[in-house]
Amino acid sequence: MLSPAAVLRSLRNISLFTDSRRRRRRRRSEGPAQELSGEDSLLHHLPVDVQLLILTFLSPRDLCRLGATCHYWSWMVRDPLIWRYFLIRDAALWSSVDHLSTPRLHFLTEPAGGDTETDTETEGETEKLDYMAEYLRCCPECRSLQRCTPPSALSFFLHSLVSDTEPRFSMFGSGLEQLDVSLMTVMMNSPHILSVAGIPQRQINGIGSGISFAYDGQHKFNIITLYSTYSAERERARVERSRVNSKLFFEEDEEEDGRGRWRYCVAPQFQEVFRSVNGFIYVANAAETQTAIREDENAQIRAVLQPVFGPPSRPLLVLSCVSRDGETQRTNASVSVAHQLQLNLLPNPWMVQDVVAESLSGLLEGIGWLLRHSGLRV
């Protein structure tokens, strides 16, 4: 990912070209040139590259407010390089993204101009991308202003027809076992964040029915935690920093384009669990950087979300976890995890939320999203 400094260099490199071209555009759009009156802002007299540099010090919200003051600034604040700078700078800091707000990869990887011979061509390619619209679509602050709409009003009607309205979710993933701090243990012992509402006495194919929690003190939901193997094997693998063969899945060969390939399938004893839930929680190790491991995780997620186990309307919450706050640099921020897991290829609604296991920071935001997309009014 390019640094903000590279974008600022690009702003300066193309300033002479953009200055003359934009003034010609403004003259065409506004008609005959008019002399600036004494009431005009002194900012209008600054070179365009200086104006653009000043705009980079404003927040996106202030930039939008400035654009509402007059025609000239409405046009200036839409400069794609400004919003490209904001997108590259802020995307790595966003703690959550979902299926409607993940920045598309080409917006983050489109090269910025630096070679004077290709400045004109590069700027032309950049202006084809609406970075302002992309930023406003993806920014969590903007996203929070548009609360999600449940899949349909039908879900509320169906909930009203049954006595047990407690949604049920299956939780699985390598982050449950690789972290030094157990996410589920902390959840069970943090009543100030999530209070335990009970342990239902029912089983699904011999598998326990999990633990019920209360969100915001009133909305009950159930989590069935599925570990990959026995506790002794998990602990040994955690100490040795090794991987274990998950008993949740088995590998199966498949033929595709004449080439033998493999895929993950859900083990028979767990299939009924995945059929019975309203959604899924996948716990990912945020410190993981190996592409091959992320591909395995993507294959396991796709195995669980097969249509044979339920409709594609069931939501998937991916918790990008670290054990402790500040323990490691969050190089795999939510945007990176979403792209690495190729979540954009899934038909289900999904969200990636950064979470710290020790403090449960970020967990409630993810749980709230999951409950809303499961049909509850929260």
TrEMBL record:
<dbReference type="GO" id="GO:0019005">
    <property type="term" value="C:SCF ubiquitin ligase complex"/>
</dbReference>
<feature type="domain" description="F-box">
    <location>
        <begin position="40"/>
        <end position="86"/>
    </location>
</feature>
<protein>
    <recommendedName>
        <fullName>F-box domain-containing protein</fullName>
    </recommendedName>
</protein>
<dbReference type="GO" id="GO:0000209">
    <property type="term" value="P:protein polyubiquitination"/>
</dbReference>
<dbReference type="InterPro" id="IPR001810">
    <property type="entry name" value="F-box_dom"/>
</dbReference>
<dbReference type="InterPro" id="IPR027417">
    <property type="entry name" value="P-loop_NTPase"/>
</dbReference>
<dbReference type="GO" id="GO:0031146">
    <property type="term" value="P:SCF-dependent proteasomal ubiquitin-dependent protein catabolic process"/>
</dbReference>
<dbReference type="InterPro" id="IPR039588">
    <property type="entry name" value="FBXO4"/>
</dbReference>
<dbReference type="InterPro" id="IPR036047">
    <property type="entry name" value="F-box-like_dom_sf"/>
</dbReference>
<dbReference type="Pfam" id="PF12937">
    <property type="entry name" value="F-box-like"/>
</dbReference>
